[in-house]
Amino acid sequence: MQLVVFAVVLILPPFLSGDLSSSITEVSDECEFYIREGGDSFCSNHKSEYKTFDLSACTVICENGDQPEFPKGICSGGKLDCTSEKAKQLQDWLLNIWKRSA
Predict the structure, then answer these.
(1) Using CA atoms in the order 28, 29, 30, 34, what is the torsion angle rounded to 10 degrees?
(2) Structure confidence by residue, pLDDT tens digits, 24-34
(3) ∠ CA 23-32-51, rounded to 5°
(4) Which pLDDT tens digit goes with each residue over 27-85?
(5) Which residue in 14, 22, 54, 102 has the most C-beta neighbors within 10 A?
(6) From CA 95, how far away is CA 2, in angstroms rounded?
(7) Residue 97 above 80 pLDDT?
(8) Three-state SS for 51?
(9) In a 3-state reduction of DSSP, which class is residue 3?
(10) 66 by DSSP, 3-state: which?
(11) Residues 18-56: b if buried by 16+ CB within 10 A, e if exposed
C-alpha cells in the first residue's frame, strides 16, 4: 500500500505538468488523473481499454461497454469540482482498484 501511494506521489506532479512523454494524455487536475488511472486499470482488469469518463452518469466508460461508477458524491450536476476531499476519495478509489487487480 505504501509503495503504491509512493508511486502515485512520484508520478502525479510531472503528469499534471505535462512533463512526461507525449504518448501520455495531459490531465487538467488531480481528480482527472485519478479518474483516468482508475479507468485504465479497471478496464484493463476487465480485458478492455479505457475510452473516456462521463460526468453526467458519474462513470468511467470502457471500450467493452463496462461503466464503473465513481465514489458516491464525486459528481454533481454533471460537473466535478476537484476539491482536496474529492481528490482523496478518487485516490482511495484508484488504490482499491489496484488492490483488486493484485
Answers:
(1) -40
(2) 567 789 999 99
(3) 60
(4) 789 999 999 999 999 999 999 999 999 999 999 999 999 999 999 999 988 999 999 99
(5) 54
(6) 10
(7) yes
(8) strand
(9) helix
(10) coil
(11) eeeeeeeeebeebbbbbbbbbbbbbbeeeeeebbebeee
